[in-house]
């Protein structure tokens, strides 16, 4: 579904991504771990060109999306993204937050969009919150709404950038449960997280990034069970 070839990103003189190669198959859950500042967010943001790659290629569903003339907005509709901070529209209800993009971008009519939104609210366990405003929700609930909003566009892949890092500990589980449900339902996902238990349980593959390079890559058993690289071992010994 996604092929990344020799992806580089520089910010001025700073060489942040130094040649990332990756293939993601449909239905796969790829979890990216690594120390802060290693380039995980930059990598994720390059996948939908929220950051413009400096060089390299990204092929998404057979299309070279790093081509300058490529219509990236069309592609972004197929790539849902969930951030650490939820970015819900504060003056809109939960339902309207979810409805907006499908109606504006996908030209769905209100009845259709509403039915879909309610179904998604059920899926994330918040069907009773459709009329609430974001300020009336807990962090975990907001993040579940952010996930429902991304899903409303019927993306082909979901990108998560530390979706639970801003949450109080007691709310982490409910968000991870929703993500796990998505994974079990066959969604293709790329997830940056520090939740190692989740990575191990839900990830099909783990990438360990350090200083802009993928230095270890394998199944959870390989990466967590018998990491080959000293830097992976050091990182895991600190976080596990
Ligand atoms: P991670 O998500 O792994 O913590 P990031 O991808 O956010 O890492 O950042 C990697 C490095 O790139 C950091 O040193 C960060 O300061 C730098 N960086 C990220 N975005 C920018 C930017 N827009 N301009 C300059 N440097 C940036
Ligand atoms: Mg980050």
Written overview of the protein:
- The chain has 240 residues and is of the alpha/beta class.
- It has a single domain, classed as Rossmann fold (3-Layer(aba) Sandwich), CATH 3.40.50.300.
- Helix content is 38%, strand content 25%.
- The protein has nine helices and ten strands.
- The chain has helices at residues 40-47, 72-77, 94-104, 110-123, 139-151, 169-184, 196-202, 220-225, 230-239; strands spanning 2-11, 14-24, 29-33, 55-60, 63-64, 79-82, 157-161, 188-192, 205-210, 213-218.
- The strands form two sheets. Strands 6-7-8-3-9-10 form a six-stranded mixed sheet, sandwiched between helices.
- The two termini are 31 Å apart.
- The model has no long low-confidence stretch (mean pLDDT 96).
- Bound molecules: adenosine-5'-diphosphate and magnesium ion.
- Residues 40-41, 161-162 line the site of magnesium ion (MG).
Topology, please?
Elements: E1 2-11, E2 14-24, E3 29-33, H1 40-47, E4 55-60, E5 63-64, H2 72-77, E6 79-82, H3 94-104, H4 110-123, H5 139-151, E7 157-161, H6 169-184, E8 188-192, H7 196-202, E9 205-210, E10 213-218, H8 220-225, H9 230-239
Parallel strand pairs: 3-8, 3-9, 6-7, 7-8
Antiparallel strand pairs: 1-2, 1-4, 4-5, 9-10
Helix pairs in contact: 3-4, 3-5, 4-5, 5-6
The structure holds adenosine-5'-diphosphate and magnesium ion.
Magnesium ion binds at residues 40-41, 161-162.
